[in-house]
């Protein structure tokens, strides 16, 4: 039975550390075919996606110029002759297999697959294994050599690596799905004029839409310490908000938006959290001005009253600001509600804010 040396184990562990790095599917394949020859030497390593039923194949090679891409049609024409593809089509084998497990070298040489395809690239020996996929698709990783065949030591190494590569492949699928979901989510938020930042469990930025990045630059003077970090002021605020919920000794106050004003503009930052992830929504608002409301049938004084209503002021406070009685303020509010067709001052304030969002 094949045994591994200490050097073999070190090579395997180094490959595993690289394999479990976070990658999406686009990065997974080139990484694997570049890393495997460090454990099992090969002249050419390939990542293949094969559909025997449709006679279709696609691949990625290392070295990248080892195989002429134009020969894919030759491979597709002869793939039914390949003993490993035939085997994987019938039995989803979970072990690394060699062509020489099924064919002698002379039998392999008699195949059109060898004459028309492998002979072009000086491939005489191959060992491969498959990743679990739904039939009829076969995802295979193949190592190819021109001189000596693969050994049982090589097979043992690949069999030890295979379950880890399967998990790494599933991780890459999950990362790709997350990227797609976040990208779609970001597109929706961008359409709604919202900037979006997604934070991981460690507080680092996992996704930031272009609009959010622009608003960070516009409203926060303190720079971020790296592309995956928030500006210092915003990072401190996020930590403060999270600490309020972490303190179980007292009921925390309602989580309010962070308001930042710069050059006559206002930014609202809202924090949403769930286990393992936080979401920052960055909404830019133009400061309300009473003149915005006059075109909608309000008098100048009614427009001023509505402005202060949207600022959260009470009737008494509005009266002090405008130098009128509380009763006068209440009459103005009644006229405002009637003209806007709303029933409450809260609804009137929401209408005013919506006017700002729609550009006045």
Based on Cα principal axes, name the global outline: elongated
Q: According to CATH, what is the class of the largest domain?
A: Alpha Beta
Q: Treating each run of at least 4 consecutive H or I residues as one helix, how many helices?
A: 13
The ordered string of helix (H) and strand (E) elements is: HHEEHHEHHEEHEEHHEEEHHHH
- What is the spatial order of strands in the main beta sheet? 2-1-5-4-3
CATH topology of the largest domain: Beta-Lactamase
**Structural class based on helices, strands and sheet pairing:** alpha+beta
Q: How large a portion of the residues is in β-strands, by DSSP E? A: 15-25%
Rg, Å, rounded: 33 Å
- Sheet bearing the most strands, described? 5 strands, antiparallel
Count the E strands: 10
CATH superfamily of the largest domain: Transcription factor LuxR-like, autoinducer-binding domain
Low confidence ranges: none
User: What's the rounded overall pLDDT mean?
Assistant: 83
């Amino acid at each position: 039975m094949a045994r591994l040396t200490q050097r073999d184990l070190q090579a395997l562990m180094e490959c595993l550390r690289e394999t479990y790095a976070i990658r999406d599917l686009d990065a997974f394949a080139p990484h694997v075919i570049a890393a495997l020859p460090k454990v099992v030497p090969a002249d050419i390593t390939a990542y293949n996606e094969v559909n025997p039923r449709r006679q279709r194949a696609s691949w990625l090679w290392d070295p990248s110029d080892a195989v002429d891409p134009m020969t894919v049609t030759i491979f597709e024409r002869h793939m039914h002759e390949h003993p490993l593809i035939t085997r994987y089509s019938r039995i989803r084998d979970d072990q690394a297999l060699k062509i020489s497990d099924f064919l002698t070298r002379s039998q392999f040489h008699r195949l059109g697959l060898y004459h028309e395809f492998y002979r072009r690239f000086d491939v005489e020996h191959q060992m491969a294994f498959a990743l679990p996929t739904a039939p009829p698709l076969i995802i295979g990783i193949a190592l190819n050599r021109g001189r000596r065949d693969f050994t049982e030591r090589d097979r043992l190494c690949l069999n030890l690596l295979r379950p880890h590569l399967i998990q790494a492949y599933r991780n890459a699928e999950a990362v790709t799905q997350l990227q797609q979901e976040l990208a779609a989510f970001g597109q929706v938020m961008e359409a709604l004029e919202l900037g979006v930042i997604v934070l991981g469990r460690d507080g680092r930025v996992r996704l930031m839409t272009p609009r959010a990045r622009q608003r960070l630059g516009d409203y926060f003077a303190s720079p971020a310490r790296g592309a995956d970090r928030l500006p210092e002021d915003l990072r401190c605020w996020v930590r403060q908000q999270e600490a309020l919920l972490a303190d179980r000794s007292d009921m925390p106050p309602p989580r309010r938006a962070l308001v930042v004003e710069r050059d006559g503009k206002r930014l609202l930052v809202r924090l949403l959290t769930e286990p393992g992830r936080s979401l920052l929504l960055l909404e830019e608002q133009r400061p309300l001005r009473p003149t915005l409301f006059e075109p909608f049938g309000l008098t100048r004084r009614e427009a001023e009253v509505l402005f202060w209503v949207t600022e959260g002021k009470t009737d008494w406070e509005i009266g002090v600001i405008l130098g009128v009685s509380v009763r006068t303020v209440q009459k103005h509010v009644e006229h405002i509600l009637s003209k806007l067709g709303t029933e409450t001052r809260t609804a009137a304030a929401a209408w005013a804010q919506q006017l700002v969002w729609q550009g006045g």
